[in-house]
From TrEMBL:
Keywords: Adaptive immunity, Immunity, Immunoglobulin. The keyword RNA-binding does not apply. It comes from Monopterus albus. InterPro entries: Ig-like_dom (IPR007110), Ig-like_dom_sf (IPR036179), Ig-like_fold (IPR013783), Ig_sub (IPR003599), Ig_V-set (IPR013106), IgHV (IPR050199). GO terms for biological process: adaptive immune response. GO terms for cellular component: extracellular region; immunoglobulin complex. This is Ig-like domain-containing protein. The keyword Zinc-finger does not apply. Residues 11-111 form the Ig-like domain.
Amino acid sequence: IGERAEKLSGPRRLASVQSIPSSSLVKKPGETLSLSCRGSGFTFNCCVMSWIRQPVGKGLEWIGSGYSDASRNYYASSVRGRVETSRDDSNSMVYLRLSNLKPEDSAVYYCARDPHSSLKKKYM
């Protein structure tokens, strides 16, 4: 689990997202991973929120994006059918649920505000 902060335009303005929990989790194959992420410093309900992971020794992998309208959520083919994202815009929270875990799901998971959600289409 990790954290990401990104700078907004203007001096000393910082938006951040914080993964919860921010420590390691140990799960077994077949179990379900549930993660939460809180955003701050930006208007949460205007933004697409994405989940990204990074397996040890590998690059970043986008796994899904969540909209305020859940019918618009979309996911990478590698996790489709096992993943769900949801949101609570009133509390600036986004959630990830990944079921039927596989060994290849072992990674550091990040949430991020997504300024360019249309770029994900190439990964679908």
